[in-house]
Amino acid sequence: MAVRGAELIQCIDTYAPPSLAIENDRIGLQIGEPNTIVTGVLVTLDVTEAVVDEAIQKGANWIVAHHAVIYQPLKSIRTDQPAGRMIAKMLRHGINVYIAHTNLDAADDGVNDVLAEKLQLKETKVLIPYGEEKLKKLVVFVPEDHHDKLLQALGEAGAGWIGNYSHCTFNTPGVGTFLPTEGTNPFIGKQGQLEKVKEIRLETVVPERIERQVIDAMLNAHPYEEVAYDVYPLEIKGKDLGFGRVGRLEQPVSLGEFARHVKQAYQLEGLRITGDLQQKVQSVAVLGGSGGRYFMDAKRAGADVYITGDIDYHVAQDALAHGLHVIDPGHHVEHLVVERVCQVLMQKLEKAVPIYASRVNTNPFRFF
Ligand SMILES: [Zn+2]
């Protein structure tokens, strides 16, 4: 079945909710229209003309990018200038561009989680929290013999997480009643006859951002034509959401050894580093993009070393003076999220459209 842009957008927004983006960030649909049928999706860190050519060559009419293609307000679209020429090419070839920027940085399984995961950090927490996950309580009534199936389906859809425990539910037996009227096709009972069925009231917790997918999974797994369920907002605190991650290495290692690990884990040609390479480090903060201005957050979080891109001279000096080592792997390191975005989209779109990770290296810098 054909997938429309709006459906692709919904998948991306569930993964990287726009509500997580910082104010005035340029995210969402920047070129094109949501109603187009998706012929393929090319996922990239940046949109350059080479990336647009790659999309055209692959027959992918949607580009999903981390960095905005239009960041500063446009003053003109001059097709004799690089930016205008690229926009014109995209319009000519019916290419649509969708951006997930700071929302993808903050998202669960987004840029910062991928960067922390590649370094095998343990007990990872959010470095700069600026929100918390909203939670809902889902209550559904299910006949006893379908209880296990429904519980599994809810767990697989992401409901019922409390800390590191999955499939958390509470179940109370009771009796459900219903009277099928004209035009119904009841799973149990007959039209015009009051039914009493032993049912279980199953309750579980659901993060608001995946509410839709959990309810869809519930409706799929439930045998009834009309499913009785309730959704309540909860006042309890969900997990922190925000930029950067801070975690620990299994063992303390020398800064030099750690830098080698970063280089390998992030597949870098080189990196910039401050501090004494013999000193031991264990607590690591990481923030994708340009995070120099947040170095004190890393220090306050107890980090021995802070990894972020675009660190400038004075920030490096200030951090060093505060006893914090910094490693700058380059801003381009964020491209490591591309594979993850592809995996998420493949899973959500159930392979209905081809998803490609861009092969274009958009890093403007080389080591010489
Ligand atoms: Zn960035």
TrEMBL record:
<feature type="binding site">
    <location>
        <position position="66"/>
    </location>
    <ligand>
        <name>a divalent metal cation</name>
    </ligand>
</feature>
<feature type="binding site">
    <location>
        <position position="331"/>
    </location>
    <ligand>
        <name>a divalent metal cation</name>
    </ligand>
</feature>
<dbReference type="InterPro" id="IPR002678">
    <property type="entry name" value="DUF34/NIF3"/>
</dbReference>
<feature type="binding site">
    <location>
        <position position="67"/>
    </location>
    <ligand>
        <name>a divalent metal cation</name>
    </ligand>
</feature>
<feature type="binding site">
    <location>
        <position position="105"/>
    </location>
    <ligand>
        <name>a divalent metal cation</name>
    </ligand>
</feature>
<dbReference type="GO" id="GO:0046872">
    <property type="term" value="F:metal ion binding"/>
</dbReference>
<keyword id="KW-0479">Metal-binding</keyword>
<dbReference type="Pfam" id="PF01784">
    <property type="entry name" value="DUF34_NIF3"/>
</dbReference>
<dbReference type="GO" id="GO:0005737">
    <property type="term" value="C:cytoplasm"/>
</dbReference>
<protein>
    <recommendedName>
        <fullName>GTP cyclohydrolase 1 type 2 homolog</fullName>
    </recommendedName>
</protein>
<comment type="similarity">
    <text>Belongs to the GTP cyclohydrolase I type 2/NIF3 family.</text>
</comment>
<dbReference type="InterPro" id="IPR017221">
    <property type="entry name" value="DUF34/NIF3_bac"/>
</dbReference>
<dbReference type="InterPro" id="IPR036069">
    <property type="entry name" value="DUF34/NIF3_sf"/>
</dbReference>
<feature type="binding site">
    <location>
        <position position="334"/>
    </location>
    <ligand>
        <name>a divalent metal cation</name>
    </ligand>
</feature>
<dbReference type="InterPro" id="IPR015867">
    <property type="entry name" value="N-reg_PII/ATP_PRibTrfase_C"/>
</dbReference>
